[in-house]
Amino acid sequence: MDEFIEAAIAQAKQGRSEGGIPIGSVLVKDGKIIGKGHNKRVQDGDPVTHAEIDCLRNAGRIGSYKGTTLYSTLMPCYLCAGAVVQFGIKKVIAGESRTFPGAKDFMVSHGVEVIDLNLAECEQMMSEFIDENPELWYEDIGK
């Protein structure tokens, strides 16, 4: 497993330890992490603070997203996929998409390379969370 998805997993675990949803994300440019984040919807009482949005906020204004890769422990939803497309991020690496299929087709249709690592650790983290907190999970994904 590479260091960047490991960093995203660490963010997800941090979010879970704070009482939140275990989804983490990192933004990488030139082989370095320039932003990290995790889902803080519960912690901040903010429905749009998904992991990828938190990560992009923490990266700050970087001018151009050319050459960046966004890592996320879970396939990005439409909100986060919209940010990917809007900012011109051309590569997304997701830990898994079995617990939530996300917006892969949307990103691909906008020229984003999407890689699903299908990692058991990421799937287990989400499956356990969803089993323990179904109302919270379904609130987050709008069902």
TrEMBL record:
GO biological process: nucleobase-containing small molecule metabolic process; pyrimidine-containing compound metabolic process
Domain CMP/dCMP-type deaminase, residue spans: 1-113
Residues of the signal peptide: none
PROSITE patterns, alphabetized: CYT_DCMP_DEAMINASES_2 (PS51747)
Superkingdom, natural source: Bacteria
Cofactor requirements of the protein: Zn(2+)
Keyword Metal-binding: yes
A single GO molecular function term of this UniProt record: diaminohydroxyphosphoribosylaminopyrimidine deaminase activity
Subunit note: Homodimer.
Protein name: Nucleoside deaminase
Organism per entry: Iningainema tapete BLCC-T55
